[in-house]
Design a protein that fits this description.
The chain is α/β, with parallel strands linked by helices. The protein has 13 helices and ten strands. Helix 7 runs antiparallel to helix 12. Bound molecules: (2S)-2-hydroxybutanedioic acid (LMR).
Length: 353
Amino acid sequence: MEKETTVGNRSRRRVLHGLAASAWAVGGVVPPAAWAGEGAPADGAAALTIRFAHVVAPDTPKGLAVERFRQLVQQRSAGRIQVVVYPDGRLYGDHDEMQALQLGAVEMLAPSLSKFGRIGFPEFELFDLPYFFPDMASVQRVTQGPLGQRMLDRLVRQRLVGLGFMDNGFKHMSANRPLLEPAHFAGLRMRVQASRVIASQMRALGARPVTLAFSETRRALAAGVVDGTENPISNFWTQRMHEVQADLSLTQHAYLGYAVVANQRFWDGVAGADRLLIEAALSEALAYGNDIADAQNAKALAALRESGVTRVHELNVAQLEAMRRAVAPVHAALAQRIGMQWLMDAAEAIRSG
Ligand code: LMR
């Protein structure tokens, strides 16, 4: 079996420890004790600053939902609570964002669900299973129901507070050739997120998974370090991956979404009324983001077609069936890692619609 390759997985532990030590002192952030205090400081500075980092472009479902959250919090707190958004991996990226959050160097993140397996929550990888969710409504029956809540509640074991789920959409495959059936993947190096399920899916198709940070993906595609990748079209388009990938095949093979998480120590230090304000703003922003996610991906596909740079391919029924058959063993192979009970509960939630 081909071994998964990890590129650029540089440890920034030392840097992060330094950052955590000074986290309360940078960026105008005041220490937790003052957060619980009354009102804004006399100089008009924000009483509470929330640094919210993510790795995608502002003009994506995630970028737009986080921006809506920022605006709502700012308006409703009359500027007393500031949300400073760092998109495009500008503050932290895939390699270090979780650790930065746990250390308090950033207050909130929205990592993809695929990124929770490696920090001790393999059940989140059920979202990566190929052809598991027939549509977005079935995803939401899991994320917006008691099962999703149970998943979020468990994050506290890693000092994270799970505040909600956010959709992007279904992923498609790109390369410098059409990928319409398993034989087309033979020998390709495909960039993946750090998820065992996704790596296993690529191997089942005959490709070699290469784990890379999102921020490094376009460059790696351009340099030929990897041959192809998978992502929802909004990510593909806003990263301008179409400029370095000749073909996009609409495989719609698996879901990509996010969990919004906060640092637990930060969250515990927020005064009750402010916490309610933040929660309400987030829940509204998530509803908005989940509402526009489909449309954003459709808009990106239209723009991609319009640009005429990348050829867009549809799969016919027989090709889709061959893809499904090729990746079917991934479910059984990863069931134990994900947890049988989680899988059965998710399957039941999907059926319940
Ligand atoms: C990826 O790494 O491909 C995605 O998780 C990026 C994102 O946050 O949508």
